[in-house]
Specification:
Blueprint: E1 5-9, E2 21-24, E3 28-31, E4 52-53, E5 63-75, E6 77-81, E7 91-99, E8 108-114, E9 121-125, E10 130-142, E11 148-149, E12 151-157, H1 160-166, H2 190-207, E13 211-214, H3 220-227, E14 239-244, E15 249-255, E16 263-268, E17 272-279, E18 283-288, E19 293-298, E20 310-315, E21 322-324, H4 330-338, E22 346-350, E23 354-359, H5 360-366, H6 371-389, E24 402-407, E25 412-415, E26 418-422, H7 439-450, H8 466-476, H9 484-487, E27 489-490, E28 498-499, H10 501-512, E29 531-538, E30 544-552, H11 557-573, H12 580-589, H13 594-597, H14 601-616, H15 621-626, E31 633-637, E32 643-647, H16 649-662, H17 679-683, E33 698-701, E34 704-708, E35 717-721, E36 727-732, E37 743-747, E38 760-764, E39 770-775, E40 788-793, E41 799-801, E42 807-809, E43 814-815, E44 819-821, E45 831-836, E46 839-844, E47 849-853, E48 860-863, E49 871-877, E50 882-887, E51 893-895, E52 903-905, E53 916-920, E54 923-928, E55 933-936, E56 941-943, E57 948-961, E58 964-973, E59 978-979, E60 985-989, E61 992-999, E62 1013-1015, E63 1018-1020, ...
Parallel strand pairs: 21-22, 23-24, 24-26, 42-63, 58-69
Antiparallel strand pairs: 1-9, 2-12, 3-5, 4-11, 5-10, 6-9, 6-12, 7-8, 7-10, 13-20, 14-19, 15-18, 15-20, 16-17, 16-19, 22-23, 25-26, 27-28, 29-30, 31-32, 33-34, 34-37, 35-36, 35-38, 38-39, 40-45, 40-53, 41-44, 42-43, 45-46, 46-47, 47-48, 49-50, 50-53, 51-52, 54-61, 55-60, 56-59, 56-61, 57-58, ...
Length: 1122
Amino acid sequence: MKKLLLLFMCASLSIGTSAQLKKVTISSAQATSQQSGEDASKAIDGNVNTLWHSQYQGTTFPVTFTASFTSKTHVDVMRYVPRTNGDNGNWLKVEVAYSESKTMNKWETVGTYNLSGSGSYDFQLGEAGFDVARVRFRILEGKGGWASAAEVEAYVVDNTKRDAFAAYFEDDLFTVLKPEVTSSEGIEDEDVKALVDNLLADAEGYKKFRVGEYEPYRHYSSLQSELKTSAPYNQWENPTGIYVKPGDSFYVMVSGIASDMVGLKVKNWVQNENGSTYGLRNGLNKITATTEGNVFVDYYTDNYKNAPNVKVHFINGTVRGYWDQATMTNKDWKEMLAKLPKDNSIIIVRSEHAQLAYPVSAWKEHCPENVDSLMTLYQQVQWAERDILGLNKYGRQTKNRQLYFATTYGFMAATGVGAYCNVNSLGAIMCPDSKRFDFWGVGHEWGHNNQIKGFHWSGCGETTNNIYASWAQLHFTGNRHSLRLEDEWSGVDEYSGMRGGRMQTYFEEAVRKGVQWQLQDGPDYHGATPDKKTVDGIDADGKSIGQVTTTSRNYDHFVKLVPFWQLNLWGTLAGKCPEIIPMVIEGIRNTPNYTSTYNTNGKQQMNWMKLACDSAQINLLPFFEKAGMLKPIKAYIEDYGAGWNIITEKMIDNLKKHVASKGYPDFTEEINYINAHNFQIYRDNKKLSVPTKMGDGCTYSNGKVKVDHKKVQNAVAFETYNAKDSLIRITMYGLGADDAHSFTMVLYPSATEESDASAYIMAVGYDGTRTKIYEKNNFQKGLEANKFYTITSVGKGNALSCGTGTSIDTKGKITWNLARAAKSNSANFVWYLEKRDAKTYLYNPQSNSYFTGTASSKTTELCDKASAPYFEAASVDETKGTYTFSMNGGGQYINSYNATETGLYGGGSGDANNIWTVEEVTTAELSIPNAGYYMACYPFAIELPEGVEANVVSATAKVNYEGTDYQYLGLEKIEGNIVPANMPVVYVGSPAKYKVKLLAEDNTAITTPNILKGTNLKLTGITKGTGMYNPSATEEAGATGMVKVNATANTIPVNRAYLLTTDVDGATEVYFQSSEFVTAISDVEAAASANQKFYELNGMRANKLQKGRIYVTSEGKTILVK
């Protein structure tokens, strides 16, 4: 006769000891496969740190493990304990049988069981056990393709304690006292006595939470397998309201267990992430807790439709309670919470499909009263998640919940068991007000758990989960003007910081520019530099092509969401193809071996589009093409699982042929323009209606046209064209709008190039109708590039300057100090509009740096060339020469924050502080003092005026004249009348102020040697008393000018040529002379050093050289001493 074997789960990480079970010795063990040193005997040696393991190489299933007893022995329970180091070989599927004979090959097969692959398992042999000689386990499947066990143990049950309770109770749960029991007097067993006292005092109050009936749930693994989700659903159903601490021993009376596993789990996510599990059997169980936490009845089975409920009594258990929306009220909640200390112990709260595990302290702080409303919000998120998954539509709905729990680490994230939030960040997801509750955050993380294979290829990690989040937010948020895509204040370039700016990026990047999906820029990672990396390459079929070098970077995940969101809005909300996303997901579920059939990211993307067309029975390929999804691509995509996205022209052609073969009709609506604020226009087929008068309802301001929706009705988007009818901008409905979405700020850029300048706007209807609503050529004369300018604030006065505090030290380190001050002749105030790569940059020649800043702040500064943003100058009033400067062509403008500080803010020309008077600088003032000499260095090339010459110092020499050493500088006039930029020279001329012409573009090169140094910025860090830069007149030593050290200065002023004493043999004063004179001096010195003799012209030998006289050397060379 076939005997019944009851299977149930025991401890996962540790096993609570039980006085109810007594160990029975297993005498020997055999296995059909075993690794040397890890034979079957290691599983019965009483040491969990050793193990039996099947052969490392060549394990084939089934693998049989047989436990034998010395003689026929009574056994109630067989326990399997998995290895403690890893999980390879942990049993997944096992068939159990026993034999009453040690020799006869006669086995009673009692069942085949699916295990989870983790945790210990107790196999109970019938209600009263069996007399067995052997027990056989046929492992049909094990983790990693092996079989292993730390221990296999046998037990008999001791019923002494059960009988002690049974003497006083009528029912098998020990909850109803016998009529004659009216007092606990005389009861010796303390546990029995306590239970009797509790029931006599308040039976109903005692039973609340301690006595319950628990239902079976479908096993989360098989549910996950059916739904194809990324993570299993809640593994902690059936909360009991009982709370235990490590070392607590308690008795649990159970009835109703049939042929499916039932156990207990203990868990506190905040205090102990691991938790513990324990097996249950019908009758009395003694459990000793090894971890702290809430107690759950662990009852999962694929037989959930037929399995009976089980009844459980936690005898004298410590009650913490839980809250269930189906059976409890806010009044119950407040009473429960009032009794609990404000600590980190967990309270379980659940709705129909959501379960929360948050600490008491958080409940008391964030939701002390209206838990019912909070759980309604969580249930609404669950509705959205399951609606997208199509669970109701396709009969896959499940009572299994999804879990959200608290942790002490991270922020919010999805895990393999649910989603979590840090205890310090729970406020946003524990607020019962729908206007403040974070629908997106909860939906986003649960959305990760619900991402399905086939809708989760590389690049979708933080994208397709947001379908669920956006669906929940759209339907249930009490703040309807705060949708993540349509209402977030974001964006890039000219729509940076605008409402809806993130979704607007898709309209520009995908629909207008035609950039491939996955490569479309957006606010997140905007302008990021791709990283160069070497990775495993594949072809379009997924075959390896070896190592390849490529580049990759992250792209905005929310921008990538838009086409899926639009398809959902158009199909379901607008009613054009209801539940199209669930249909695609169901198509993926119903495709056998999906990820092996579609084994590359590109194939999965292509098949997604195919399933969408097949589901809708509409040719949606033009929509996908505009979205950038149906375009050839070969790119390495960053994600949690980075990988190649390869789509070829052939793949595209094959999809087009498939759709054409089906005869699907083309759609005629502008699906790529739908959003959550205009879907009603599509749903109700509202025709575009515009005023008869051109421009009515349209107001231009600063590169945008405000279009009033009351005047221009039922437009779903706006297209901006230039004078040559080329589309230069697409604006989404509601960009930059108010909360009521009563207008759209249409992008209407001005430009100094006609091809980039706006000329007119077309309003677009849902059906593709287009009507011109505004016309104005926004071509504006801009500032001419590659010229010098001063830039002075209209609103606050003072001009942009590199700042007097900007300096450079002797090691070349620049200290930048951007500021504004009263405009002067200083080169600090001169800016150069440098044009490169068709963009204009604000360059400050004096500091050799560029203007930059931080958006929406007064943080502006100077930076190097590589870091510099570009600026677009737009004319405000040509007659006054006023302009605005927008950074990177966006909505941030150089702003005169106050009298001296400069910032970057929005507002365009509507803010006077964004308007600047720009004046071209063509000349500079050169002042030559009374000395007739001026040592200078300028950051721009200049053209010399009449009467002024520029000299380099090409040589120096020292001579002893009448007993005194003199150091001379040899001035040599430069050729031509152009002094190159940054060239230090000595200007010579009559004392006066001269106008010199600035040359923006000059390639003059001076090759004459020049020992002068030059600085445009104040030079700091020189040794005090070593700098020479200020000439004076002198007639001494045959010179007409001299320069000597500044004895007190340790800096060199701006725009100076200079020398240091170290350049002139330590001299502290030097004299100007011609280079010929200095060269002659050098010759005299050279001749003297060669022991040559000097003679007067009359042949007499000269014993002393005199100024102004001519001598002849002994070698016959004539020398003039000037």
